[in-house]
Design a protein that fits this description.
This protein is mostly helical and about 120 residues long. It contains five helices and no strands. The two termini are about 20 Å apart.
Amino acid sequence: MRDFTKLEMWNIGMDIADEVLDIFDDIPPSQAGFKIRDQATDAACSIPSNIAEGSSRRSEKEKYRFFEFALGSAFELQTRMLILQRRKWAEPQRVEAMLAKVVLVQKKIGAFMGVLDA
């Protein structure tokens, strides 16, 4: 079994989860709404969680499946952050920085999946 805490994509995912939680702590629930807050924070936390769970799997097929879940969560979070950006619910610089990290983790997960699929 691999130590998932040493994976760069897991660490980026953890940073994303922390930052998304911080962003939504600064937005009044009445402004962003509870649903988008819950969906965004769930998606953010799901990224490193699925990377960790996938790392525990023995077969390449099972690993791939969990990395696919992590990638899907990253795209879901990207969409939620784009909604935040369009609605101007958070500071533009914070959202742009978050979007850059989300795209980075998407690339890292995709590259890892490419290795598994080879």
